[in-house]
Amino acid sequence: MKVAMYYNQQDIRIEEKPIPKIGDDEVLVKMKACGICGSDLMDWYLKNRAPLVLGHEPAGIIEKTGEKVKDFNVGDRVFVHHHVPCLTCHYCIHGDYTLCQKFHNTNIDPGGFAEYFRVPALNLQIDTLKIPDKLSFEEASLIEPVGCCLRAFKKSGIQVGDSVLIIGAGTTGIIHTALSKIFGASKTIVSDFFDFRLRMAERFEADITVNPKTDDLIDVVKGETNGIGVDLVIVTAPSIEAYKVGLKACRKGGKLCVFAPTRPGEYLRISPKELFFSEIQIIPSYSTSHLETRTALELIKSGRIKAKELITHRFKLEETSEAFKTALENKESLKVIVLNEE
Ligand SMILES: [Zn+2]
Ligand SMILES: [Zn+2]
Fold it and tell me: Which of 50, 178, 280, 287 is buried most deeply by CB count within 10 Å?
């Protein structure tokens, strides 16, 4: 079978690999659609693991099932989550599923940018979801990123009527914009350096969009919040500057959600004195669990999250290298999808 082997951002090769053999309690899935995630574009994160097959937002059709598999059949259309928790460790029983060691160790084999992938038993049991007929594979490939954003909102404890600032309007920034409305925000402000993305944010019901190249974000936020700042800031841009601005835009007692990691070795200076008196809460949210993926599927199915409108580019598996280039360089791109067509 064909796989897209990642050596580095500029070097992704189509290679031949044997189709994975499955165990009695596993299934083989034929990939149909798999999104490129922001984390697939973080070279520092992947450098030490390459060469590898990326792709963790896959949807496809079950091609083969092991003898002991009961709940799935050949021909089922499925979304598969690449990471699943053990449900019993200290982290899991505290609801911190994404910190579970098993969560980090589980994965699909070899990855989503391949003609076929093997779904290990635990992934099949805990977080393989059947795709409703009305959803396309490409829409289902958005389940994972929507799940990540949902988890951030849940962790942030947003309340109806809150004001929200989203810094960075890439795919996840736009999903956050849509979720902000769903969670009942009274006002959603979205900031990005690229006007294309701000127009997309408006399509997803942002109330106010700001390009910091032309307008001062803090002035706008203060003007919109009677001078006090927003209740919740979500930073989806991987930059220290974005976090600095985010802290300034947050009201006293508000929350700042850390949704994007910066490069290793980059630090944000925080004064405990200022943090103490401002009581701003810093809430990081990494990845998504089996709880949010189910809700994400429902939100996409119901049309509350318009998954299709998030997809700006589609490439064939053979063109994965070009797909990465587009995701990395084209500032008029949001979700870039790799498709495995007949
Ligand atoms: Zn992702
Ligand atoms: Zn666990």
Answer: 178
Name the residues around ion ligand 2, CB cutoff 5 A.
85-86, 89, 92, 100
pTM for this prediction: 0.97
Residue-wise pLDDT tens digits, 83-138: 999 999 999 999 999 999 999 999 999 999 999 999 999 999 999 999 999 999 99
Distance 1 CA to ligand 1 centre (A): 24
Task: Look up residue 252 and give its amino acid.
Answer: K
Question: How far is Cα 174 from Cα 157, in angstroms, rounded to an integer?
Answer: 19
- Kindly identify the ligand whose nearest atom is closest to the C-alpha of 99: 2
How far, in Å, are 18, 130, 198, 212, 341 from residue 194 at the CA level?
Answer: 42, 36, 7, 9, 32
Ligand nearest to the Cα of 34, by number: 1
Note the pLDDT tens digit of each residue in 288-335: 999 999 999 999 999 999 999 999 999 999 999 999 999 999 989 999
Distance 260 CA to ligand 1 centre (A): 11
pLDDT digits (tens, 9 = 90+) for 71-85: 999 999 999 999 999
Distance CA 11, CA 267 (A): 30
Domains of the chain, first to last: 2-142+305-339 (3.90.180.10), 149-284 (3.40.50.720)
